[in-house]
Amino acid sequence: MPLPPHSIPSCPFCAIAAAYPPSSSTSAPPSRATTTPTVTGSLPNPPLARVLLSTPYLVAFLDHAPISRGHVLIATRQHREKLSDVSVEEGRAVGAWIGILCRAVITSVLGKEQDMGGTKARGVETGAEEDAVGDWNVVQNNGARAAQVVPHVHFHIIPRPGDVPEIKNRSWTIFGKGQREELDDEDAEILIDGMRKQLAKEIERVRRREGDEGLRLLFGEQGLKREYKL
C-alpha cells in the first residue's frame, strides 16, 4: 500500500499513517491490534508505533520520547506542515476527537487523580465515572522557530502527574524537545492497553450522552451505519 496522498516519504508521521490504516470500528482498537504495522506495501521498514486511534483523518499514538508518562501525539493522516494547511474536514475531526482522547489518556495515566481537578472539585455532579480528570497540556507548534520538530501537524497531550515534582517544574519543555526520555517498551504496552480500553469507554459515553449524532461526528455516516445498522 503506497503512502497516503499529500504524504512525504521522509516524514515519520506519514510513514505511521501509511502503516496503520483507518479502523472501521466504532470501538477502540483491540489490545494489540495496532501494536505492529498491518500493511507494508511500498514501506521497506514500516515503523513500529503504539497506536491509540486511527481514522481517515487522524492517527493518535504514543510519543517515542515522552516529556511525561503517557505523552500522546495526534497527527493528521495527510501531510500538513502547519495548522493553517489543515482542511475543514480535518479540523472538524480534530475538534471531535481531541476531548475524547484527552479523557482516555489522562484517566488511564492519572487514575485516581481524576477527582482532583475535574467537575467534582467544582461542585458539578455528572456521575462518578463521568467526571473530568487531572491536569495536562495540549500543545501544537507551527514551524521551527515555534519549536516544531517534525514538520507535520500534530498535537501533544502531556499528562502532568501531581505526585512527580520534577514534572511540575518542566512547563517550559512543552515548547520544544525539552527534557525527554526514551519510551520504555514494556511500559508502553501497559500504557497503550489501558488507553485503548479507556477510549472504548469514552466512545460509549459519547453514545449515551449524545446519541447517534455524536457517533456520526466521530465516525461518519457510513461507519455509524455499519456498526449500528441504522
Helix content: 25-40%
What's the Cα radius of gyration?
A: 17 Å
How much of the sequence lies in strands comes to 5-15%
Mean pLDDT: 78
Outline the biggest β-sheet.
5 strands, antiparallel
How do the strands line up in the largest sheet? Answer: 1-2-3-5-4
Count of separate DSSP helical elements: 4
Topology pattern, helix = H, strand = E: HEEEHEEHH
Structural class: alpha+beta
What is the CA–CA distance across the termini?
Answer: 31 Å
How many strand segments? Answer: 5
Low-confidence stretches: 30-36, 113-130
Describe the global form: globular
What is the secondary structure topology, with strand pairs?
Blueprint: H1 12-19, E1 51-54, E2 58-62, E3 72-76, H2 88-110, E4 136-139, E5 154-159, H3 165-168, H4 185-228
Task: Walk me through this protein's architecture.
The longest helix is centred in the C-terminal third of the chain and has 44 residues, at 185-228. The chain starts with 11 loop residues before the first helix and ends with a helix. Helix content is 34%, strand content 10%. The chain has 4 helices and 5 strands, in the order αβββαββαα. β1 (51-54) and β2 (58-62) form a beta hairpin. The chain has helices spanning 12-19, 88-110, 165-168, 185-228, and strands at residues 51-54, 58-62, 72-76, 136-139, 154-159. Mean pLDDT is 78; it is low at 30-36 and 113-130. The protein is an alpha+beta fold and 230 residues long. The protein has a 5-stranded antiparallel beta sheet, with helices on both faces. The radius of gyration is 17 Å and the shape is globular.
